Amino acid sequence: MEKFDMTATTFFGLEGVLAEELTKIGASDIKLSTRAVVFRGDIQVLYRANFWLRTALKVLVPIKKFKAFNDKELYEEVIRINWQDYMAVSDTFAIDCTASGPVFTHSKYAALKCKDAIADHFRNKRGRRPSVDTEYPDLRINIHIYNSDITISLDSTGIPMSKRGYKVRQTEAPVNEVLAAGILKLALWQPSEAFTDPMCGSGTFPIEAALMAMNIAPGNFRHFAVEKWRNFDSSIWAELKKEQKDIAKPKPENIICGFDIDVTALDASCQNAAKAGVENFIDFNRKDFFNNSKPAQEGFLIMNPPYGERLETENEIGEFYKNIGDTLKNNYDGYKAWILSGNLPALKTIGLHPKKKIKLFNGPLECKLECFEIYSGSKKINKQTIAN
Fold first, then answer.
1. Using CB atoms within 10 A of its CB, is residue 279 exposed (0-12), middle (13-18) or buried (19+)?
2. Alpha helix locations (H) across 283-338?
3. How far apart are CA 209 and CA 131, in angstroms?
4. 3-class SS at 187?
C-alpha cells in the first residue's frame, strides 16, 4: 500500500508518549513537533491511528503546502487544488483554521477565503457550489497558517479524540480523556499494578485505566470523519474492529478504584463507566480520601485535586494540599502518587519531595504533574533496611 505523510496533534507535553503509540501501530519516519507528531504510513496506519491512539487529538493528512503573503494568493492556491479528488459537488464540507503571525491575523477571514475558493472551484468545474455543514460535513478540511506558510490538510478524525463518546455526565473542571490517558502513560503505570484515583470526579482516570488494562480501543465508542471519505475502505475498517474484539481482555489484571466524597460525582462516574462497558471492573465508592486507608498493599495513585477556585483563601488551599501530603505519607506507603494541579504554589505545601515534575496544560491552564514515592519511614531508612 502507498505511504503518505500524516500529522497527529496532541497536548503540550504528550508528544513523546504519542510518538511511542505511533511506533506500536506501524508508523514510520516519526518526528516530534510542538503539540504534534509527524509520521508516515499507509491507509491501514491512518485507520489504526484514529481507532487506537489514546493521546492524539486529531489525525490530519496534508494535501498541499505553500506560501502566501495575502488573501489573494491564499485564494488562488486553494482554488487550484483538484477538490474533486476528495469530494463531490453534492457533498458538504467545513473548514477549521488556525492562523498565527503577522501575515494572516484573523483565522475566520482566512477560512472564509478558503471556503470561497473551494466553492468557486466546483462552480467553475461543475456549474454549482457545494454546501457548508459545520456540524456533520462529508469532508472536514484543516487550514494551518504560520506566518506565510500554509498547510491544507484533510481532517480524518472530525470531533477531537478527547471526545471518546462514553461521557454521559461531567463534573466541574474535568480532565479530558486524552490528557488522562497521556498522564497514565507519562506515569508509566502498568495494568499489572493496582490503580486508585481518590478524587475521581466524573471517573476519567479510572475509566481510561480500565480501557488500557483490557485492551479496549479508545475509538471503539464513536465514528470518525474518515468513514465518510470517498476512498474509505470498509473492509479494512471491519477487520480493525474484529481485531479489537479478538485482543480485548475479559477483565483487568489488578484492582482499579475510583473514590470521591461527592455522591453526584460518583453517580456520573458510574454512568460514564457503564457507557464505556467497564462498570463491572472499577470499584467506585464514596470515600473521604483524608479518612480512609489504601485499597491495596502497594500500587499507583493519580489525582487531580481542586485548584482552589472554590476555596476562599490561600491559607485554605494551602492547608488542603498539606493534608494531601500528610494523608499520602501516613496512609499510602508503598504507593507511587502522581498529582496534577494548576495551583503551583499549593503544590509546594504538600510537604513531600517530588521525584519528578512534568509541565502540562489542563485546557489553557498551565499545570504541573508531580510524582511522589511514598515509603514507610524515610527513604534513607528503607535503603538501609534493604542493604541489611
1. middle
2. 314-331
3. 41
4. coil
d(CA 221, CA 214): 15
Please identify which residue in the block is written with the cell numbers 473514590. 259
**3-class secondary structure, 77:** helix
Q: Where are the domains of the chain?
A: 4-155, 177-215+248-387
Confidence of residue 169 (pLDDT cuts 50, 70, 90): confident
At 264, the amino acid letter reads T
Q: What is 4-155's CATH number, 3.10.450.590, 3.40.50.720, 3.30.450.40, 3.30.2130.30? A: 3.30.2130.30
Residues in the chain: 388
Q: For a pLDDT cut of 70, what percent of the chain falls above it?
A: 95
Which residues, other chains included, contact 342 with Cβ-Cβ below 8 Å and sequence gap of 6+? 307, 362, 365, 366, 367
**Beta partners for 151?**
65, 144
Cα separation, 18 vs 219, whole angstroms:
15
Q: Look at the domain 177-215+248-387 and name its fold.
A: Rossmann fold (3.40.50)
CB 145 within 8 A of CB 104: yes
- CA dihedral (57, 269, 357, 365) in degrees, to 10, reads 60
Is there a common fold for 4-155 and 177-215+248-387? Answer: no
User: What are 127-165's pLDDT values in tens digits?
Assistant: 999 999 999 999 999 999 999 999 999 999 999 999 999
C-alpha cell at 123: 462552480
Cell of 268: 456520573
C-alpha cell at 248: 480485548
Q: Is the dihedral of CA 205, 208, 210, 212 positive or negative?
A: negative
